[in-house]
Amino acid sequence: MRYLPHTKEDIEDMLKVTGQSSLEDLFNCIPDNLKTKKSMDIPQSLSEWELNVHMEELASSNIACKEYKCFIGAGSYDHYIPAIIPYLISRSEFMTAYTPYQPEVSQGTLQGIYEFQTMVTELLGMDVATASHYDCGTALAEAALIALRKNRKANKIAVSSLVHPSHRQIIHTYINPAGYEIIEIPYTKDGLTDVGALEDMDDIAGIAVQSPNFFGNIEDLKAFKDMADTKKILLIASFTEALAFGLLKNPGSFGADLVAGEGQSLGISKSFGGPGLGLLAGTKQQMRNLPGRFIGKTSDTNGDEGFVLTLATREQHIRREKASSNICSNNGLNAMTAAIYLATVGKIGIREIAQQNHDKAVYLKISLENSSFESAFDVPFFNEFVLKAPAGFEQKRASLVNDKCTFAGMNLEPFYPELKQHYLFCATETLSKEDIDQLAKEVQ
After folding, report:
1. Of 150, 165, 232, 265, which residue is least crowded by CB atoms under 10 Å?
2. Domains of the chain
3. How many CA atoms lie within 13 A of 52 on its CB side?
4. Are 279 and 286 in contact (CB under 8 A)?
């Protein structure tokens, strides 16, 4: 639909109704010292065709061609997306998703969310799952708030320093204004969170640890569960690569109280970093503490199966000051995408994809070590790992982007200053053996 501005006559008619003589009079309530006195520096208007050319020029400056090979993960991963998924998710019934308050006209949406919840609980080994959140960071922050509300005597949450740096920042944004505090758990020389450091930490309401962690290493969640039980606090397990649980034991099998993770790998494209899909699940004991909504299955007066909005934090709509969360959007389209992906790929498919991810990452690590890179940590990992690069790699890495359409790892120094010349590499099923061999050859 084209934008049709109001005519001068339209504006005059509307001003008569409001009792104002000019548009400026509408803003008399704003103090003069808050008004801009000079004209705004806005470029000259463009015709529709000139604007299209301008937008195409801007778009061409982005790197978006499929020829680029990406050896970076760090919370956003390249995966093949079955063709059936964009086809189904583009149907108008899904694209126009809204909060399904009226079950009599929302059975398709309700059932889709119900199936999503069911598959997420199976994947993570938990009792209940909410109907999705914005991304892992917001889901993790909500989990931290649950722990803090549950243990009112504590005002701190212990968060592993190997939780994704961006997600730690989001937790800070959520809890600091409420008077809570984050204590970061250091990591050991093995690239794992130091569970022993928790022994001397008092006044904490919960422990948040990511596995596989930001370095790609697999944490000992059982040790953290034992520590949480000893201190009588909640264990929050986090993840950024949902497909890892095709091979690894899920967090529920270790007794996690809450699980918060990123579902982007479940059929959602990277799309320049977003949008993602926040997964949040918990035990039955935490069900009424979880923000958002749950879809339940029931039967009507005729005995026919139906789906309804079973639980929701109603205060988030009408009494915001008493709400456990004010996130009202359930990111429904991405949740539906994940549900279709999980149903399409199935348990066997997820395991096969996870196996490919792990095997290709192992092959990439060995190949780079044969090209003068040094392994930073000698512990099990999934599809990401850290290597110390030889001298001159940064220049080679920059040239690979322009000359070979290749992104070779991510520099960890901005996030972990002590890891100078260390890079995080990732491999998924989208990379071939030839891709890996070519990278190893180029960085020699």
Report:
1. 232
2. 69-80+347-442 (3.90.1150.10), 84-342 (3.40.640.10)
3. 3
4. no
